[in-house]
């Protein structure tokens, strides 16, 4: 049985999510990785270096840059017949591509997979992470999106062959006209090993600088609650939870966060939780492995000062 993984990449860099997807699906069979875009030679080389990759297919066209989902589906439709599994991460591209491909191939997509039990059996969270559903599918081909943070990354050190694939006759109806990016030198939130999250009690965008300073000292990504995002204290793409990003870091430091169900839906994969809260009875305080009861404006500067001393 063979697997085709659609690579995630941005600004010429392979996303860490792809290494995790490759590692997860390697148990299903030999893995080929498809890299599409324009000027993506370095991305293809990075994909070829992942252990478990048999071959990298590279298809370069400006159609992939201007309308990635439409064009990706047109190419995948022709390639999918050679594979039993087509998989990618459950990021914005995967969520766009896989359902469209499923409609074209008349298959049921299996989305947000967090565990692969076998070739026809997968676990995925439902009801905002409050239950885990086991899906068994006897379809001839499985189309999967995987929550990358639930899996370990494939190591690098491989040198798989890279083969060009010509994409012909791609017609698109959509076009990307602009991309607005948040500049950040912190790690990717969805795959970071440490995340420092701030709640609405941080009080202002200026207050979030304190959260960012602590995150930088720890080499961590910054997250936020929806209340903090709605208040304008943190950008949209920092939101963690049911309607934000799903994270699974080794360590989550939750600062001034109550632990509403919708936030908890995004942090269930966190291995250790440290909560800093004035309220020892807050729902997240009860869930935390370590609870620091105190005012974040006292505790966080002390933590930063201690880290500076190291
Ligand atoms: P609060 O609940 O107000 O909690 C603030 C906490 O800070 C309290 O525990 C308080 O004790 C503590 N505190 C106050 N002052 C200090 C201080 N000085 N120092 C330390 N601690 C202090 N939320 C998400 O986060 N992600 C989602 O994806 C999401 N999706 C949603 C989807 C829907 C459909 C709905 C209805 C809601 C969603 N929410 C989501 C919102 C969610 O219900 C909560 O409102 C939100 O998570 C609360 O954010 P918070 O913890 O920052 O604020």
Unreliable parts: none
**Number of beta strands:** 17
Overall average residue pLDDT: 93
Indicate the percent of residues in helices. Answer: 25-40%
What structural category do the secondary elements indicate? alpha/beta
| Shape designation | globular
Distance between the termini: 51 Å
Biggest pleated-sheet summary: 7 strands, parallel
Helix and strand topology:
Elements: E1 3-6, E2 9-10, E3 13-14, H1 16-25, E4 31-37, H2 41-48, E5 53-60, H3 62-66, H4 68-79, E6 85-89, H5 92-105, E7 109-113, E8 115-118, E9 121-126, E10 131-136, E11 142-146, E12 162-164, E13 194-198, H6 208-218, E14 221-224, H7 226-230, E15 251-255, H8 261-264, E16 272-277, H9 283-287, E17 290-293, H10 296-309
Parallel strand pairs: 1-4, 1-6, 4-5, 5-12, 6-11, 7-11, 13-14, 13-15, 15-16, 16-17
Antiparallel strand pairs: 2-3, 8-9, 9-10
Helix pairs in contact: 4-5, 6-10
Bound molecules: flavin-adenine dinucleotide.
Flavin-adenine dinucleotide is lined by residues 199-201, 225-228, 239-244, 256-258, 260, 262-263, 266, 276-279, 282, 295-297.
Walk me through this protein's architecture.
With 310 residues, the protein is α/β, with parallel strands linked by helices. Helix content is 28%, strand content 26%. It contains ten helices and 17 strands. The chain has helices at residues 16-25, 41-48, 62-66, 68-79, 92-105, 208-218, 226-230, 261-264, 283-287, 296-309; strands spanning 3-6, 9-10, 13-14, 31-37, 53-60, 85-89, 109-113, 115-118, 121-126, 131-136, 142-146, 162-164, 194-198, 221-224, 251-255, 272-277, 290-293. A seven-stranded parallel beta sheet has the order 7-11-6-1-4-5-12, with helices on both faces. Strand 15 (251-255), helix 8 (261-264) and strand 16 form a beta-alpha-beta unit. The longest helix is centred in the first third of the chain and has 14 residues, at 92-105. The radius of gyration is 21 Å and the shape is globular. The N and C termini lie far apart (51 Å). The model has no long low-confidence stretch (mean pLDDT 93). Bound molecules: flavin-adenine dinucleotide. The site of flavin-adenine dinucleotide (FAD) has 28 residues, from helix 7, helix 8, strand 16 and helix 10. It holds the Pfam family ETF. This is Electron transfer flavoprotein subunit alpha. Residues 3-180 form the Electron transfer flavoprotein alpha/beta-subunit N-terminal domain. Belongs to the ETF alpha-subunit/FixB family. One of its GO terms (molecular function) is flavin adenine dinucleotide binding.
């Amino acid at each position: 049985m063979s697997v085709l993984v659609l690579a995630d990449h941005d600004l010429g860099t392979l996303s860490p999510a792809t290494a995790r997807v490759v590692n997860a699906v390697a148990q299903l069979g030999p893995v080929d990785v498809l890299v599409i875009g324009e000027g993506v030679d370095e991305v293809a080389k990075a994909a070829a270096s992942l252990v478990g990759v048999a071959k990298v297919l590279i298809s370069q066209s400006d159609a992939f840059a201007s309308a990635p989902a439409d064009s990706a589906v047109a190419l995948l439709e022709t390639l999918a017949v050679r594979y039993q599994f087509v998989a990618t991460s459950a990021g914005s591209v995967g969520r766009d591509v896989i359902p469209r491909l499923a409609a074209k191939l008349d298959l049921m997509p299996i989305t947000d997979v967090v565990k692969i039990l076998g070739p026809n059996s997968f676990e995925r969270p439902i009801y905002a992470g409050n239950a885990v559903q086991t899906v068994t599918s006897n379809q001839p081909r499985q189309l999967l999106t995987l929550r990358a943070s639930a899996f370990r990354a494939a190591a690098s050190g491989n040198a798989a062959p890279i083969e060009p694939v010509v994409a012909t006759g791609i017609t698109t109806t959509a076009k990307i006209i602009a991309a607005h990016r948040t500049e950040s030198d912190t790690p990717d939130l969805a795959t970071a090993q440490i995340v420092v999250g701030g709640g609405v009690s941080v009080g202002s965008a200026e207050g979030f600088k304190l959260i960012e300073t602590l995150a930088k000292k720890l080499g961590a990504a910054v997250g936020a609650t929806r209340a903090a995002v709605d208040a304008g204290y943190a950008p949209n793409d920092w939101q963690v939870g049911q309607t934000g990003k799903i994270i699974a870091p080794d360590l989550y430091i939750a600062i001034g966060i109550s632990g509403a169900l919708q936030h908890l839906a995004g942090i269930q994969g966190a291995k250790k939780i440290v909560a800093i809260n004035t309220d020892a009875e807050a729902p997240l305080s009860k869930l935390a492995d370590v609870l620091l009861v105190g005012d974040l404006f006292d505790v966080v500067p002390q933590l930063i000062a201690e880290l500076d001393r190291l």
